[in-house]
Amino acid sequence: MKIAVIGSGAIGALVAGYLKNIGQDVFLVGHQDSVETIRKNGLKISGVRSNITVPIDICSSTNIKEAVDLAIIATKTQDVQFAVSCNLKNLGEAIILTIQNGVRADDIVAKFLPRENIISSIVMFGATYLEPGSVVHNFEGRWILGRPYIKNDEKLNKVAAICKKAFPVFITDDIWGMKWLKIFVNAHNCIPAILGKSMQEIYADLEICKISLSVWREALEVVRKTGIKLVSLPDFSVERLNNISELPLEAGAKMFSGIMLGLSKEPLYGSILQSIKRGRPSEIDFINGEFVSLANNSGQLALLNERLTAMVHKVELTKKFFSKEELLAQTREFINTVPKVP
Q1: What is the dihedral of CA 120, 49, 75, 162, to 10 degrees?
Q2: Does 189 lie in the same domain as 163?
Q3: Which domain holds residue 90?
Q4: Checking phi first, is residue 286 left (phi over 0); if not, alpha (psi -120 to 50) or beta?
Q5: Each residue of 306-333: pLDDT tens digit?
Q6: Among 89, 208, 274, 334, which has the minimal tally of Cβ within 10 Å of its Cβ?
Q7: How many structural domains does the chain have?
Q8: Same domain, yes or no, for 110 and 224?
Q9: Are residues 184 and 100 in the same domain?
Q10: At what angle do helices 175-186 and 238-246 cross, to 10 degrees?
Q11: Assign residue 249 a region: left if phi > 0, alpha if psi is -120 to 50, beta otherwise?
Q12: Radius of gyration, alpha carbons of the chain
């Protein structure tokens, strides 16, 4: 299959680089800074596997050069519409594989392309964008694939066979339920973005871990009342989320800290902070903001997630990070009022 990976950030570059390195017919589509750097120096990948430089063809995000069989959309959710609409001519017959965080990307693609061409996915591996053409593979994880609108079929199996050459693959019959649970996994990315520090620095602090634990508690309350069914991920179960959330704050914070500190030996910044460091809008509205939207649409409140979402937007606007003291001051009232999940 001829493959285009649209989006040259951390995950897009990692996927494209690994697929190309094992001999797949793949090219990368990215912003102009990435185009110039990768054409000149190749794509540099470091981290948990090895340090490699991959020569790979790359073109501008508004100009896919030819029709492809598979397009892996690796932009942020807010950029999906632009990426697809600019390249409809060469995407019309392609299988589309989305890998965005949140639950909205597939519906955006479906406005332009047939639903039966869309495969949804969740990436459980982690990567950090260092600079144009250079990424760190922080930790391993599975690539979860499923059909969002129709039953899993041979097209999905064909794509899975390609993906598993680069990452372990897991096929699910309920991609929506898993995508909702993945939002919980990503919900802690907002705090490093607010403070401008790595996850290792942030989550060594138990007071900050209490905020993330309270984010989960609040979101679980909202999701449960709306009837959304969370489905366990291969390496993170609904039961585990519930069990950690039900612990007293101090004990839950210690467990949460241990989980986060064990993710990566390399500094891990999270997708939201990586976008801010690159001077681009983050995906906060599709993560913590999704809990806020869900609450507002069902007559509920998600005041902690709402406050954290607003703080991320302020960092995006002002380019100034908050201090730990400011974060604690702005969230303290919500930490004490969030109930344990029954």
Answers
A1: -40
A2: no
A3: 2-173
A4: alpha
A5: 999 999 999 999 999 999 999 999 999 9
A6: 89
A7: 2
A8: no
A9: no
A10: 40
A11: alpha
A12: 19
Mean pLDDT of 284-310: 97
pLDDT tens by residue, 72-118: 999 999 999 999 999 999 999 999 999 999 999 999 999 999 999 99
Question: Looking at the domain assignment, is residue 341 inside a domain?
Answer: no
Closest to 249 (Cα-Cα) out of 141, 335, 155, 120: 335
Last residue in a domain, options 173, 190, 214:
173
Q: How many residues does the chain have?
A: 342
**C-beta of residue 280 within 8 angstroms of C-beta of residue 191:** no
Quick one: 25 and 162 in the same domain? yes
The candidate with the shortest Cα–Cα distance to 141, out of 169, 176, 175, is 169
Tell which of 151, 173, 195 closes a domain: 173
- In 3D space, the residue among 244, 174, 237 whose CA is nearest the CA of residue 209 turns out to be 244
In this structure, the answer to whether residues 107 and 206 fall within a common structural domain is no
Direct distance between the N- and C-terminal alpha carbons of the chain, in angstroms, rounded to an integer: 49
Residues 329 and 183 in one domain: yes
Rounded to whole angstroms, the Cα distance separating 265 from 309 reads 28
Decide if 252 contacts 341 (C-beta within 8 A): no
Q: Do 158 and 26 have their domain in common? A: yes
Q: Quick one: CA dihedral 137, 286, 219, 203, positive or negative?
A: positive
Note whether 204 and 323 are within 8 A (CB).
no
